[in-house]
Each structure stands twice: as structure tokens, then as C-alpha cells.
Amino acid sequence: MALRHAVLAALLDEELSGYQLAKSFDLGVANFWHALPQQLYAELARLEADGLVAGREVVQETRPNKRLFKVTDEGLAELERFAASSAKPSMLRDDLAVKVQSSDLVDTGPVIAQLRERADFARAKIELFEKLLVKLRGGRVEEEFLREGERVGPYLTCLGGLVFERGYLQWCERIAGILETRSGEKERGR
Amino acid sequence: MALRHAVLAALLDEELSGYQLAKSFDLGVANFWHALPQQLYAELARLEADGLVAGREVVQETRPNKRLFKVTDEGLAELERFAASSAKPSMLRDDLAVKVQSSDLVDTGPVIAQLRERADFARAKIELFEKLLVKLRGGRVEEEFLREGERVGPYLTCLGGLVFERGYLQWCERIAGILETRSGEKERGR
DNA sequence: TCATGATACTCAAGAATCTGACTATTCATA
DNA sequence: TATGAATAGTCAGATTCTTGAGTATCATGA
User: Fold this and answer.
1) CA-based nearest distance B166→chain A, Å
2) How far apart are the C-alpha atoms of B91 and A91, rounded to whole Å?
3) Residue B103 in domain
4) Strand D: which residues 34-93 of A lie within 7 A (CB)?
5) Helix (H), strand (E), coil (C) string for A18-72
6) Residue B180's domain spans which residues?
7) Which burial class, exposed, middle or buried, applies to B41 when counting CB atoms under 10 A from its CB (0-12, 13-18, 19+)?
8) Does A60 lie in the same domain as A37?
9) pLDDT digits (tens, 9 = 90+) for A49-104
């Protein structure tokens, strides 16, 4: 029961449909929570059944109709309880690190390629986050916004995503460089 | 089928029992993979049944007997295939970030406390990683070790863990400071 | 005009994960 | 000398997550 709270937190700022929510989990919220669309639809249904979110049908002419969900007072109370409860340590699962861990005993070629790919991805994400931050603080300088802005939560988590991606980017570049040098040395050594 | 590869990677350097493996997943490997002991015991059983690891009973006098596992050639071949296959994007799930996301609408007191706790945890982990790095490079300076060392995989993932925890630490401290200032302002504003 | 791709969802089945309890022995410590 | 922590696991059941396939409409571009 933890996806529930991630969904509630994601719905705090705007009413979203399941489809939009899925997109936001693939971009913004994905910094700190991962879920597939199917899970989100299912979770929204459960949340609605429990009265933590309220859905309303929006009829569209040019596209299929959709249901928009917003957090209810009960939902907010649930988030309040969650925030006060003890947090589980953050959980990370990273395929690429598993490959790096075994990199002395397997062919490093594909691992280096994947590190470079991941670095590109991180660069794209960083750019996206930087734009999002500018948008969220709406003209104000950061310090002023963080002191006086009404809604800073998403900004703060976006800062977290930025820190994470910048760290990951540096790591990828450094490790790719090291593995490349080492595989070069090995060639010459033969 | 992804925990398998994390387990194989963790067993590359030493023969471990399920119990020891569980410990290492709680400390070192936990940088990039999370799993509970029960899962590890089950996965070891499956890996052994598939011939990817080999277990041997070690009789102990002063403690309960244990079974040590090592990676077989087949296991290594499986890791090789895994390293060459495309990686899934790293998956993060972070309770604390969910709480920060909703921090404008819930009581920030407990969130700030949790950020400080997490910061302490990160500091402890950083110290641990730094010691581990010194141990892994065994007297040599980093550059030399990374160029000429025979087994650098665990060192590289440890570097990753360090980058991650340092980033997380900075984020926690900064966010805790911001939320504290804001809650102070609010008090005075009443 | 025909094929994508985007919007907006749904369903079922199976794999993976988590919760919680249990067994048994030894070591340290209060 | 009891008490709790550490070693070394096992088991069942519930929940969660992932895989894979479908439905239907509209817009865009080749």
C-alpha cells in the first residue's frame, strides 16, 4: 500500500485521468516512483472505491471520453497519516549496476554501450527537469520562490530528480571511460 | 528474472551462504538492488536447481551448519548473456520523496524529522563506502587501481553508491532546511 | 488511402515480492 | 542466569507487479 500515496501525491496539483497520470508517472513522478499504466488504472479504481479520490466523467467530442480524478478530503487525511508514518528506505533496482558489478568477467562492449545510452537519457532528463523548474517557479528566482511560493512540493522533488540524474550521468560517463581504457589496455596486452 | 542476475553478480567474488548474501544485500549490494532474505533463499534454490550456482554444505561446530554457494560456468554464461541484453531503466521507489511532494498540504514536522534521519543514514553509508573503497583498492591509489586492478566491478558500483548517497544527503539537508524555514515563516505569519 | 501513433482504457494470468510466523543453536551481557 | 541478539535458515499466504493481449476513435503523414 504505497503506490496509493504516490498516486494521491501526483493528483494534488491537478485533476488527471488515468491516461494522463500514466504519462506523468513516466516523466515527472518517475523520479521517485515507478508504475505501469495498468497498475495506475487499478489503483485509481481502488482509491475511488475507498473514497480517497473522486472521479468525474468528461465527455469529449474529438477524443474518447475520460474520467478525471481529484483527491478528496479523506484522501488528504490519508496522505497526512502517511507523511507522519515512518518511511521505508528508498528502494533501488538497477540492471546496469548489476552489469557493472560483473564487468571484469563478462564482455564489457555492450555494458559500455548501455552506459553511454543511459548517459544520453540522463542528459535529456536533466534538460527536462531544468525546464520544469523554471516553469514551476514562474519567473521568480529560486530563493524567493522557495521562501514564499505557495506550492513547492513538486519543485523540491524535481530538485531531487535533478540531483539523482546528474549523479547518475557523471557516474555513467566515468565508468564508461574506465571500462573503455581497461578494454583498450587488454587488447594491447595480448 | 532479474534478481537472479543480482545474486549471481554478488556471488562472483566470494562463496556465500544465504545468510551472508542477505547481509550483503542489506549493505553493499543494496546500493543497486533490494531484496529480502526469504527471496534470496528461494532464488538460491532456483539457481541451484538450474545449475547456475553450486552449493556445498559446511559443517560448523560452534554455529549451525551452512551452505555456501558459488557461481558455476553456466552461471557465468548466464551473466554474460544478461550483460549483453538490453537493460531496463533503473527503478526507484522512495516514500520520503512522496511525502516531500505533498509537503505543502500536510504537516511538515514529521517529514523534516524523516529527512534528518535519512541524512544521518546517508552519512553512515558514505563513511562505510569510503572505507570499503580503501579496502578494495588495497593500498594502491585509485587511478592506478582502476587502470591495473584485476577486479574493479565492485569498486565501480561502490563509487555509484557513494555518488547516490552523497546526492541524497545534500538533497535531504537542503529540503529539511527549506521546509523548516517555511514552517517558521508560517508560524510568524499567523 | 493506408498505416502509424496518440488518446483512453480494460482484462486475465502468471511471476515476483512482501508480511509474518517458525525452528534451533550459540554468544554476550546485564 | 535469564534475556536478547546473532547465526542459519524454512514455510505459507497475501499482495503487488509485470506481461501480453484487446477495444475503440481520431489525427497525421506518406
Assistant:
1) 9
2) 8
3) yes
4) 34-36, 38-39, 62-64
5) HHHHHHHHHCCHHHCCCCCHHHHHHHHHHHHHCCCEEEEEECCCCCCCEEEEEEC
6) 95-189
7) middle
8) yes
9) 999 999 999 999 889 999 999 999 999 999 999 999 998 889 999 999 999 999 99
